[in-house]
Write a structure and sequence with these properties.
Number of domains: 2
Number of strands: 8
Structural class: alpha+beta
CATH architecture of the largest domain: 3-Layer(aba) Sandwich
Number of helices: 4
Largest sheet: 4 strands, antiparallel
Protein name: GIY-YIG nuclease family protein
Distance between the termini: 31 Å
CATH superfamily of the largest domain: GIY-YIG endonuclease
Strand content: 25-35%
Oligomer: single chain
């Protein structure tokens, strides 16, 4: 990863403090993901009316990236709950392929980039960037 150096002119102690900044647009956001544990036992209730991204991982590999900006209809809680139901049916026969998925192995992570309505553009932009970078298998099979 390429690193560039910039001057932080707003630093309170010095007008010329040198800081390091990456050129990877997702570097900051990669550290902001919160784990909810495994899908089978995850509690989505606290995320009612929250907008943001979510992803499913198995053995550390991203399998699905999704997002929601519709906070009035339940936000992340609704999207995560609906995906659980959809995966139970759709993943069995996705495009003619049979999947054997152990739902106790799917780890759920969420990323909340801000509050409604300010984070809508950020959420949509990050979703596209993560889909492009990670190329999750389930996104390609289901959509």
């Amino acid at each position: 990863m390429e690193m560039t150096h910039v001057w932080n002119l707003n630093h309170p102690l010095t007008k010329k403090r040198r800081t390091t900044q990456t050129t990877d647009p997702l570097a900051y956001w990669d550290d902001q993901w919160q784990s909810l544990g495994f899908l089978q036992a995850a509690n989505f209730s606290p995320y009612f009316r929250e907008i943001g991204l979510y992803r499913y991982k198995i053995n550390g590999k991203v399998k699905f990236v999704g997002s929601t900006v519709d906070w009035l209809k339940g936000g992340l809680r609704r999207s995560l709950s609906e995906d659980c139901q959809r995966f139970l049916f759709a993943m069995t026969f996705a495009r003619g392929l049979i999947f054997l998925i152990d739902f106790s192995q799917i780890e759920v992570e969420i990323l909340i980039p801000g509050t409604y309505p300010h984070a809508i553009d950020t959420t949509e932009s990050l979703t596209q960037k993560y889909l492009k970078r990670d190329k999750p298998l389930w996104n390609r099979l289901l959509y």
